[in-house]
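Long-time lurker. I teach an intro course on protein structure, and each term I like to show students one example going from raw sequence to a predicted 3D structure in token notation. This year I'd like something fresh instead of my usual example. Would anyone be willing to generate the tokens for the chain below so I can use it in lecture? Attribution to the forum is fine with me.
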Amino acid sequence: MSAVLPLPARMDSAVAAGLADILRAHLGQPLILDGQAVVHLGGLCLQVLLSFARSCRDTGTPVRLRDPSLALTAALADYGLPDTGLDVTPEGTA
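-- Reply from a regular --
Happy to contribute to a lecture. Here you go:
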């Protein structure tokens, strides 16, 4: 069963280090990132999320983004990513 991690409303430089620590603690465990409360996504938090997604892909750990808010979806699109750009499902598990 996947743990669910609610993402903070303001994902900016003030929360980036703490978010990285929390995500690092979940590495190797299936995780669902709940994005429904996000109203702002800054570049540093985007880097944290993408780095975590890459680590999950490298270790074969499933992680997915659930219920992205309109603001999160728009921010990901502005950065050139679809909201599924953070989803990592190892081959054979989908």
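Some talking points for your students: Residues 3-86 form a domain with the Transcription Regulator spoIIAA fold (CATH 3.30.750.24). The chain has one domain: 3-86.
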